[in-house]
Amino acid sequence: MRIDKFLKVSRLIKRRTVANAACDAQKIELNGKPAKPGDRVKIGDTIAITFKGETTRYEVLSVQEHALKEDAASMYRRLS
To answer: pTM above the 0.85 mark?
Structure first.
């Protein structure tokens, strides 16, 4: 699954266009490298999101095409 779609489905970022823009602005890292919107996410990957000077890291636990609001948080685990 593309990282921009994962961020939207998991609800880490509310809209895919915002996730796209964040990737283009190099605010998203995938496994320690700046992510492009089309980069593929798989289970075990680490995602770092930087907003307002703070970086939060997440581990990908599952990859689903669609997720209910209640299930979205089970797709990742916050590391820091």
So the answer is: yes
